[in-house]
Amino acid sequence: MIAEDSVLLRAGVERLLADEGIETVAAVGDGPGLLTALDEHRPDLAIVDVRMPPTFRDEGLRAALEARKRFPGTSVLVLSQYVEEHYAIELIGSGAAGVGYLLKERVADVADFVDAVQRVADGGTSIDPEVISQLLGRRRNPLDALTPRELEVLGLMAEGRSNTAIARGLVVSDGAVEKHIGNIFAKLNLEPTSDEHRRVRAVLTYLSHS
């Protein structure tokens, strides 16, 4: 299936795939449509544009991440003009199987594009070298691995707030805060030791990189 707000591009990709014997079971123009179509058709692959209505910022990529959570094993190939670094890191980090991220302006060969489509649909990967280059440069700051909510939780930790105080401030459960903190420790590679306090180490990382 294809999720792309440009009618012409959507039709063009669908025709190109049809010429290669690849059936498009649904073509939609926004994130909610993507999730609805995935639930209905369960396709082998979703080709997703990053920027779609209503704000044309990152709706497609966020919908792709939600799709991977709702429908585990869904293969997603992002086809975009931009590298949305934060969500790209999260998408690629959600599991290497069945993930692709290609830049539209660098897709110059139909055969290469079709090969990427088939590879990702089969559970492989296809990441544009330019995407890798940008992500590696950004990952030099360890905080870039965190989601906006995890970064918010870490900031409140740096203010000295307890889990209960953080939960109250964010209007979430204590369990949700504990989960966020666990994710923070994992993404910052803070393994539990008897000699150091991971919470303090996480805060020090935040203060030195924010």
From TrEMBL:
The keyword Phosphoprotein appears for this protein:
yes
Coiled-coil stretches are none
CDD domains (UniProt xref):
LuxR_C_like, REC_NarL-like
* Record-listed 4-aspartylphosphate modification sites: 49
InterPro entries found in the cross-reference section: CheY-like_superfamily, NreC/VraR/RcsB-like_REC, Sig_transdc_resp-reg_C-effctor, Sig_transdc_resp-reg_receiver, Tscrpt_reg_LuxR_C, WalR-like
Domain called HTH luxR-type: residue spans: 139-210
Q: Sorted alphabetically, which Pfam families does this protein's record hold?
A: GerE (PF00196), Response_reg (PF00072)
Q: Which residues form the Response regulatory domain?
A: 1-119
In its UniProt record, a GO molecular function of this protein is: DNA binding
Alphabetical UniProt keywords: DNA-binding, Phosphoprotein, Transcription, Transcription regulation
Query: Sorted alphabetically, which SUPFAM superfamilies does this protein's record hold?
Result: C-terminal effector domain of the bipartite response regulators (SSF46894), CheY-like (SSF52172)
User: What processes does the entry annotate via GO biological process terms?
Assistant: phosphorelay signal transduction system; regulation of DNA-templated transcription
Identification of the protein by name: Two component transcriptional regulator, LuxR family
Species = Streptoalloteichus hindustanus
